[in-house]
Every structure is written in C-alpha cells, then in structure tokens.
C-alpha cells in the first residue's frame, strides 16, 4: 500500500478537499481598529457582562476568608467546651532557640545577638 493512497482515502472519507478555506482574512490589530474603532474598543477593553472590579474583589475576599477560616469541624457539637484543635494550637515559636530576642510574632521575627552570629 502506498503512502499516497492512504492520504487520498482519508481525504475522500473526511471530505477535506470539499471544505472551503477560511473565508475571512486574518487582520492585524491596527487594521481591526482602523476599520471599526468603536467595536474594536468594546471587544478589547470592556469587561464581559457581569464582571466588574468590585465583583472581582468581593469574590477574592470571600475566597481568602474561606481559606483563612478553613473547613468546618465535623462533630463539633460532641467536642468538649474549650477544646482547641491541634491545627489551631500554637506552640512556643522559640523553643530551642536560646539567645534570640522575639521582636514580633506575626510574622515571626527574631533578632540574633551579635555574639551568636
């Protein structure tokens, strides 16, 4: 079987030869703006309907708050009062770091004395 026959067979079954080429030319950006500047400006620079800066920041804020709060704790009604989940419990951040001076805990910032450098 020749390679050309397989290609011809594929063209016959898919109808590639009968399909018209792309009817519209690809225009450059400058030509598109020169032809119809108002339509081009609307398509390129205006947001899609329903999207706004305020809506974006509201959604981003809700996503950040959801990430900070985490998931709900299952069976929280059965837990004893005052129990802090291990994920939320904070340990002493400078355990084993003798000589460091804690400057701030959010974010953790500790100062190393000169004699320890």
Structural write-up:
- The protein is mainly α and 117 residues long.
- The protein has a domain at 25-49.
- The chain contains 4 helices and 2 strands.
- It has a two-stranded antiparallel ribbon with strand order 1-2.
- Strand 1 (101-105) and strand 2 form a beta hairpin.
- Helix 2 crosses helix 3.
- Give the CA-CA distance, first to last residue: 78 Å
Strand content: 5-15%
**Sequence of strands across the biggest β-sheet:** 1-2
Largest sheet: 2 strands, antiparallel
Quaternary state of the chains? single chain
Radius of gyration: 33 Å
Chain-averaged pLDDT: 72
Order of helices and strands: HHHHEE
How much helicity do the residues have? 25-40%
Per-chain topology:
Blueprint: H1 3-14, H2 29-35, H3 37-45, H4 53-69, E1 101-105, E2 108-111
Antiparallel strand pairs: 1-2
């Amino acid at each position: 079987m020749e390679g050309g026959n397989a290609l011809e067979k594929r063209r016959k079954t898919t109808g590639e030869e009968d399909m018209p080429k792309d009817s519209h030319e690809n225009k450059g950006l400058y030509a598109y703006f020169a032809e119809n500047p108002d339509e081009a400006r609307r398509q390129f620079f205006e947001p899609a309907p329903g999207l706004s800066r305020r809506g974006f920041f509201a959604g981003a804020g809700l996503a950040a708050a959801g990430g900070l709060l985490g998931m709900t704790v299952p069976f929280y009604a059965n837990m004893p009062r005052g129990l802090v989940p291990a994920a939320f419990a904070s340990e002493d951040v400078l355990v084993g770091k003798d000589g460091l001076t804690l400057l701030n805990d959010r974010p953790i910032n500790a100062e190393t004395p000169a004699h320890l450098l």
